[in-house]
Design a protein that fits this description.
The chain is an alpha/beta fold and 306 residues long. The chain is 42% helix and 11% strand. The chain has an eight-stranded parallel beta sheet with strand order 2-1-3-8-7-4-5-6, with helices on both faces.
Amino acid sequence: MKLYYADHFVLPLPEGHRFPMEKYARLRSRLQASGMFAETDFRVPDPASDEAILRAHDAGYLERVAGGTLDAAEVRRIGFPWSPAMVERSRRSAGATLAACRSALARDGGTACAVNLAGGTHHAHRDFGSGFCVFNDTAIAALAMRAEGRAGRIAIVDCDVHQGDGTATILADEPEVFTCSLHGAKNFPFRKQISDLDIELPDETDDAAYLKALDDALQSVFERVRPELAIYLAGADPYAGDRLGRLALSIDGLRLRDERVLATCRDAGVPVAIAMAGGYAEPIDDTVTIHFNTVTSAARLLRDRA
């Protein structure tokens, strides 16, 4: 199972910025120390090309991002200060999901899986970024897999606590790409978009209620689309201790969520690419633990299948 990382492409942030950029390096370090993966399993992705990005994003927006000509309102909406390093980091993060999809689909027979140790930037829309998201790696990857003839029907299972609004709008006219989002009803973005399947959850939703909603959603997704590839956004932010979450899942409940999604893909013989998406817990090690559990659960399920 290949793990794609770009944490050494550092996006410089001002002191006190609330985005936990260091979680990515901590996650990779913990996975490397776990003994479950060889060093050759960890790969640095190529940056997403203009061609790949432009399938999902407006040319004018890409030009403003790449050239550093975003206006002040656009920069505020993204939430990151512009820098050349921000552009490179964003291209690499999108490239990691592209690489994970290609890697998962390259296996002959059975279920394959690969991971972007970042990504899940689902608030980026066609012509603007938002909510710490510059380029929408999920939409970029889904459209690339179709354009490259690697997968026709694709299911996006978004379990970040915030709705995948950018993904929904970019892929609204793509009938072969099914968007499913499980998210907090009262959380950001406050103006929701329309996914193919939206599951809105009340504040303080606990493990049992969440897993029931997830089971129903997975049944619906896999019956309706019969995907050839799944892209799973495994957000850590439904956690009860997340600063931006508003739900009440435990760390063990989130591990069970991962196992439900991944086992469904395995049992259906559907390759899956995983992105980490959000996570804002204090202490940050809780977020790292949740992401670590996602990756190691995937590795164990593949091993058990073999």
